[in-house]
Amino acid sequence: MTDRSGSRIDHLNIAVPDIRAAMAFYRPVLASIGIAQMLVVPAGDHGPAMTGYGWPDRKPYFWLVDGGTVGTNMHLAFTVDTRAEVDTFHRAALAAGATAREAPAVRTEYHPDYYGGFVDDPHGINLEAVCHHPAA
């Protein structure tokens, strides 16, 4: 079986027009799949306010940056270990104010075990949780 579990991306910054609104959305949604808010950096000489999310025993790897413009066709997928986590993420995102895009399902156009669910966050970013493992 092909290992689809990782990448070489160390961290990713996403510009949002309202960091407080974004934090209110992302905190519960990411917590639903084990990703925690780790750092809040106020605006200063380094630049705009930022907040970092990641695995607390490692580092933040997903950052929201205040005062930006969301790009067109922006898509961000979070890898999870089980299909149940995809379902949990999708429900948590909808409860936090996301707009439904595509319900969790197998997407054989990518590979036979690709199970993903899609939403649009309140700023229009297309978010996905994806599991690359077969059903339990």
Automatic annotation (TrEMBL):
PANTHER family: GLYOXALASE FAMILY PROTEIN (AFU_ORTHOLOGUE AFUA_5G14830)
Listed Pfam families: Glyoxalase
SUPFAM superfamilies assigned: Glyoxalase/Bleomycin resistance protein/Dihydroxybiphenyl dioxygenase
Record organism: Klenkia taihuensis
UniProt protein name: Catechol 2,3-dioxygenase
Alphabetized UniProt keyword annotations: Dioxygenase, Oxidoreductase
Record bears the keyword Oxidoreductase: yes
Ranges of residues in domain VOC: 8-132
Gene Ontology MF terms: dioxygenase activity
Oxidoreductase found in the keyword field: yes
Gene3D superfamilies per UniProt: 2,3-Dihydroxybiphenyl 1,2-Dioxygenase, domain 1 (3.10.180.10)
Domain of life: Bacteria
